[in-house]
Amino acid sequence: MAYxxxxxxxxxxxVIPPVAVGTTGTGxxxxxxxxxxxxxVEFDIAYGAITATGAVFSVTVLEGDATGSLTSVADADLxxxxxxxxxxxxxxxxxxxxxxxxxxxxxxGSRYVRVDVSSTATAGTPVAVNAILGRPHRAAVxx
Length: 143
Fold this sequence. Notes:
Blueprint: E1 10-21, E2 27-29, E3 33-34, E4 38-47, E5 57-64, E6 71-72, E7 78-79, H1 82-85, E8 100-106, E9 112-119, E10 125-136
């Protein structure tokens, strides 16, 4: 069997620290990620216990060649969908519609990317987002 080393070939960056997203109409703006030196980006979105059945969590992926001018990513440059990375209004069930992790990948050509999460919930729900940078131009990646 071939030796497979993922540990030295990815970097993980916190985009949104664990935070209660929940004031109606507001959300969390993620940190801008510089993809220089990597060929792939995957965003990992972790949702905690959600008490509001009707709460909707929306994910938006943005890109740009400068940190101050990011625009929405075209669907063709995403692996998965923003809707699929979010949570629809539903009865809450562990490992399905709460206490679940979703993901969305980016395959566009812009250097900078960001993920934002917004919610319609009025009660705070913990959400955290990490960016996983892969396929480094130079391995091993410092841990």
